[in-house]
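Support reply, case 0932

Customer input (verbatim):
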Amino acid sequence: MLKESLTRVGNKMDLSMHLIPLRDLEYRTLVKLIYEKSGINLGDNKQELLKTRLGKRLRALDIKTYGEYYDYATDPDNVGEMTNLINAISTNFTSFYRESQHYDFLLKTVLGEIVKNKQALHSRKIRIWCAAASSGEEPYTLALTLLEYFKNSSGWDIKLLATDISSKVLSHAYQGIYSEDNVKMVKSALLSRYFDKERQDDEIMYHVKDEVKRMIVFRRLNLMDPVFPFQGPFDFIFCRNVMIYFDLPTQENLIEKLLKYLVVGGYFFTSHSENLPQSFRDRVEIVAPATYRKIK
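Our regenerated output:
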């Protein structure tokens, strides 16, 4: 009897933690705020997602309503909470060698073309931007691809800028520590060459070696910022699985800024679920699936 009572109480407590009501006005107000601050467009029917993502913040702050949370997050005295909000709402799924055709295209086409162009300009500087670094798998995959391609060539100055709006995932990316399951798509030869294997408690972990880390600069960046704190230009840009969360005007605004930082002849990679709006088709050409080349 006592066990049943405790079970009912426990279930009630568990449910109550997730049942802070989200009223329509609160939802619309928070969606507008998220859109303004991050460009993420949740639309009209993501109430459950918002409750799941933000409920933990309300409980951590002992805030009873989403309206109170909005006031708290927008209070100038709580400057760090907006970052917490964006961290909570951002989707950060990624993996090593995700959409691997892009890395094949880099090896077979892009890098050879870059080398040829740089040699004609008497330059050995290559700059890359990974605009949605998440927890680091994508920029590290790019770094491995570059290291493998240039392993028999010396004197190249190669740097990769890796940015993300979420400071939480960037911290993970900077550490460069991954589980055995995380690195299952990395070939064993590359794991041996570019990772240190270590047992932590009962789990095998892989630490990215400093040789790889030195190629990458991790920085927090909101792609909705009107001005970016760097000059570029970049030889190619990865911006994958970002625009799917934006409406068309936000996509167009972002692409305009990205193309500004891409050299003429440089490559722009999106995800296979994204397409560049028609308004940019006179400035880029499609050269492979989800791969564009800037022509002017």
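We compared this against your earlier run and they match. Two observations from our side: DSSP finds eleven helices and ten strands in the chain. Residues 2-89 form a domain with the Chemotaxis Receptor Methyltransferase Cher; domain 1 fold (CATH 1.10.155.10). Please reopen the case if you see a mismatch on your end.
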